[in-house]
Amino acid sequence: MERTYVKDLSGQIGNPVLLRGWVHKIRDFGKLKFIMLRDKTGLVQLVISDQTHEGLRIETPLEVRGILQKNDKAVKGLEVQVEALSILAEPEYDILPIEINREDLNSALETNLNYRSLSLRNVKKRAIFKVQEEITECFRTFLKGEMFSEIHTPKLVSSGTEGGSEVFTVKYFDRRAFLAQSPQFYKQMMVGAGFERVFEVGHAYRAELHNTWRHLNEYVSLDVEMGFIKDEFDLMNLENRFMKYLFDHLKETCAEELEMYHITLEDIGEIPKMTLEEVHEILLDRYDKKSPVGNIDAEGEILISQYVKEKYNSDFVFLTKYPVKKRPVYAMPDDENPELTKSFDLIYKGLEITTGGQRIHSYSHLKNNMIKFGLNPDDFDFYVDTFKYGMPPHGGFAIGLERLTMKILELDNIREATLFPRDMKRLTP
Amino acid sequence: MERTYVKDLSGQIGNPVLLRGWVHKIRDFGKLKFIMLRDKTGLVQLVISDQTHEGLRIETPLEVRGILQKNDKAVKGLEVQVEALSILAEPEYDILPIEINREDLNSALETNLNYRSLSLRNVKKRAIFKVQEEITECFRTFLKGEMFSEIHTPKLVSSGTEGGSEVFTVKYFDRRAFLAQSPQFYKQMMVGAGFERVFEVGHAYRAELHNTWRHLNEYVSLDVEMGFIKDEFDLMNLENRFMKYLFDHLKETCAEELEMYHITLEDIGEIPKMTLEEVHEILLDRYDKKSPVGNIDAEGEILISQYVKEKYNSDFVFLTKYPVKKRPVYAMPDDENPELTKSFDLIYKGLEITTGGQRIHSYSHLKNNMIKFGLNPDDFDFYVDTFKYGMPPHGGFAIGLERLTMKILELDNIREATLFPRDMKRLTP
């Protein structure tokens, strides 16, 4: 007999079924026991009407055979009259450190992270990762439909991507290596290698010294790089279309999960664009808020999102034309004002979730720019040399997967959107 | 006007087209020039019939407008009569270190790896990664169809997975971390966390001190873990079905790439299974080959593959029932002989591409086994504690992506199947 998942039960009333899962809740009336069984796909009530299975504990993994019946008072109107029950493993805990079977856990974030394989059994916690899985799935499907190829680039590298700060050091045999802060150099090289359009779903590492609600030291970066572009607007256009594709898809595939978090996703049209200069003016005029030179800070991100929401009814806004001094060495200078770059950030619900832009594609230009930035091009020769052999105009962007997940579901802390987060204090589980 | 990819040209004869790509070859007859243009999808002949564009160099990125015409003598019977040509970037090389436009490169592997963004422009080299991309795509699609969820687990970990040898050390703020040798502990924990069936496509790190044709220090591991299994045969059955799905799919989507490498993929039926003991006997009887205790060596893998190919006409063979002493601490002992385990390897064309098996799921059993193996369970408490809370019978396996790619295309060196390989000597590009 084949196992049936709980989500596939409806329509099988009167039939014998084989279920597997964990004991979620028990109500014991002596002769009659009601067990809520939880599998990967949902919850269903089991009825045991003899006096076997005394002392069955919560979270025991079971295999159950029985007849599916209608019961309007049970979850989804279904219950299983149990005919045979096997305990697949005896739990060996003293007490459960987390009350998994609540709708909302009442345990602290730290507890939930310490007992991750327990807290994730909570239906609402698992929902976060259903949404996250759909985001990566959409990212790949959308980009493959746009002729992008998936790549895997090394995370063990010989030099920091952005000049070497905030990078983890690895003992690599008899020398030092670093953990890649981003696949930046490699994705550009792959455009030059004739793949033209590439994406990667992979880990990125930042040895940042702050422990905040929005930083992780290891995160999943959704990276895009695209050759033969006209300018940075091609990239913003691509990301805009991706977000629309994603949100339309999430509304279909994650309706239940979004509902759990009381989220209504907007219908994405054209995402508003503002230059950094305009944003600085708005922040000052309307909110009396001063910004750091060449950027906005966390409070500025929140305020400009408020403004855009009120004025354009959009949760998203592209900020464009960041100054050369605040962007990496490979950022393409603006045509009109060479002190600005063809770069952008995407702010979503008050948080930066993307940095992107057009890159310099001329070998001499890039090499001279490195010297101007105080870098030695020889330290990056494997990257810079690529540009000798005919590199088309190109650019790209990266989306932080956990940040996007967190903001879609309006979670308070990025650690909620990570299975096993890594921060300054946390290396386990 | 929209860009057309070379692969989409046929059927557009007589129409104006816009192409982008690199100059692959030039034949210059003064008044008449023939240029082979290469884009991500193929090659097409361009005809320039005026005397412009003198000194155009190989590998220049171009944008071209022209009329598509029939020419039976050109590749695929098509050529483009050029009306406008823009050079998108001027190459700045002295000489090209690799003759990219040959069918088979005649440069050494080291040269090809040193100039990776050049060697990958070669059509046959790129084909390797088309096949590789389809493998990961099939892996995901097949497993999602079997109710598996995709996960991302940390690569920065606090302890080695298999006891701590051959592991890279990372300076993690004020302490030490390691690079994960596999997602083993985490994928098991995710089964226990109620996800039941999980997979991951992610990097794994081995600080192995050998530099061979089949080892990489950073590779992509296709990991699977499955809860509620009966025994290890459920896992072999799953992998068998995946391989069949994959090969059927590759025959459809990569016919051209397989043809380039003169590969005919077998029709996969039921993959033969042999116990390690049987294999030892066959190797000794038929090939006078002695094997190391509890395993076979590289030569043994080749010989047993020969035997299986002759006897069963299969490129694959499962080797089962490895001894406890040669398998990790979490391997489930065999029911009949407790000195053996419910584990297996999959050998393909003379190379191990998978290790797998059922795992111990009882907390006491696992903890006692650790002590028996001379490990301190407290060093792995975040993992072992998971088993207190009700862990169903489970198991899994991992496929080395580069090994599978290499063997499908019968490449000589695993580095050919890696965009940017990492070995004892190589950290760049």
UniProtKB/TrEMBL annotation, chains A, B:
Gene3D superfamilies: Bira Bifunctional Protein, Domain 2 (3.30.930.10), Nucleic acid-binding proteins (2.40.50.140). GO terms for biological process: aspartyl-tRNA aminoacylation. Its main location: cytoplasm. Residues 184-187 are annotated as: Aspartate. The keyword Transmembrane does not apply. GO terms for molecular function: aspartate-tRNA ligase activity; ATP binding; catalytic activity, acting on a protein; RNA binding; transferase activity. L-aspartate binds at E162, R206, T355, R359. The keyword S-adenosyl-L-methionine does not apply. Coiled coil: none annotated. Its EC number is 6.1.1.12. It catalyses: tRNA(Asp) + L-aspartate + ATP = L-aspartyl-tRNA(Asp) + AMP + diphosphate. Keywords: Aminoacyl-tRNA synthetase, ATP-binding, Cytoplasm, Ligase, Nucleotide-binding, Protein biosynthesis. InterPro entries: Aa-tRNA-synt_II (IPR004364), aa-tRNA-synth_II (IPR006195), aa-tRNA-synth_II/BPL/LPL (IPR045864), Asp-tRNA_synthase_2 (IPR004523), Asp/Asn-tRNA-synth_IIb (IPR002312), NA-bd_OB-fold (IPR012340), NA-bd_OB_tRNA (IPR004365). GO terms for cellular component: aminoacyl-tRNA synthetase multienzyme complex; cytosol. Catalyzes the attachment of L-aspartate to tRNA(Asp) in a two-step reaction: L-aspartate is first activated by ATP to form Asp-AMP and then transferred to the acceptor end of tRNA(Asp). Homodimer. Belongs to the class-II aminoacyl-tRNA synthetase family. Type 2 subfamily. This is Aspartate--tRNA ligase. It comes from Geosporobacter ferrireducens. The gene is aspS.
